[in-house]
Amino acid sequence: MASILVVDDDQGMREFLEIMLIQEGHSVKCACDGKQALGLCNKHKFDLAITDLKMPKVDGIDFLKGVKEISPETMVIVITAYASGGTAVTAMKEGAYDYIEKNFDIEDLKKIVQNALDKRGSKEDDAKFLKSVQDADRFGNIIGKSREMLKVYSLINKVAETIVNVLILGESGTGKELVARAIHENSPRKGKPFVTINCGGIPENLLESELFGYMKGSFTGAYSDKPGLFEIANGGTIFLDEIGELPTILQVKLLRAIQEKTFRRVGGSDDVKVDVRIIAATNQDLAKKVKDASFREDLFYRLNVVAIEMPPLRKRKEDIPLLTDFFLRKYSEKFGKETKTISTYSMELLMDYAFPGNVRELENIIEKSVALGMSNIVLPENFSLSQGEYDCYSFFDGALIEGGINLNKEMDKFEKNLIEKALGLSQGSKSGAAKILNVSLDSLRYRIEKLGV
Question: Which segments constitute the Response regulatory domain (predicted)?
Answer without folding.
Answer: 3-117
